[in-house]
Amino acid sequence: MSFDINIWMKEYLYKLKSLFGSELLFVGLQGSYGRGEATESSDIDAVVILNHVTPEDLKAYSTMLNILPHREKVCGFISGRQELINWERSDLFQFYHDTTPFFGSIDFLLPLISKADIHRAIRIGACNMYHICGHNMVHEKDSEILKSLYKSASFTVQAVYYAQTDNYIKQKVDLISVLQRPEQEILQTCITLKQQPDLAQNKFEQLSDLLFQWTSELIIKYKTKLN
User: Fold this and answer.
1) Where would I find the H helices in 36-138?
2) pLDDT in tens, 137-164
3) Confidence category of residue 224, pLDDT binned at 50, 70, 90
4) Distances in Å between the alpha carbon of 126 and those of 60, 133, 158, 186, 226?
5) Are strands 100-104 and 24-30 parallel, antiparallel or unpaired?
6) Which of 55, 113, 129, 199 would you call most buried, defined as having the most Cβ atoms within 10 angstroms of its Cβ?
């Protein structure tokens, strides 16, 4: 791959510091570049935390991005510190663990995240996938929707494993070796679909059944844990 994320991040961080100065608290990467799983088509999922964010800051940030190379690849998240501290805790779990730092630290978030928040993250993820998967099986029967659901499922698998072990493993290839069924089967399907995208069409019913049943079990299991 000709694109070097470390070189790009060095220039990106330099321009962020020039733009925001002491207001810049944290810069990180999420997604496939943050996990070291990127391909040429991967987005640059950047995280920027300022002491405080105004609409003018957002406009200035957008203008800055426009002069960087590979602008079309850049997406991500920008927030003020207090907004992040008061964010939905179940979202903060994945946000914290899936963000690779390049500047500063978001360790101040970790004490805010409880076991109940992790269980809530699992349950919300499962509820969303259950609803969309069922709808897709009855109505759209769309293999692209199914592939996106399995991509989402990989994050819920990470949360389930963390809830069981207190160990967060970012890379799928490392995680799959320590999983038990059914999470291992779900994650293996996610990996296989990325390598063989036509499989979602060829085995639509089988893969939909697997995902629907798994999310159903999670919804019930983690509702019990919340009580």
Assistant:
1) 55-66, 81-85, 89-97, 115-135
2) 999 999 999 999 999 999 999 999 999 9
3) low
4) 37, 10, 13, 13, 14
5) antiparallel
6) 129
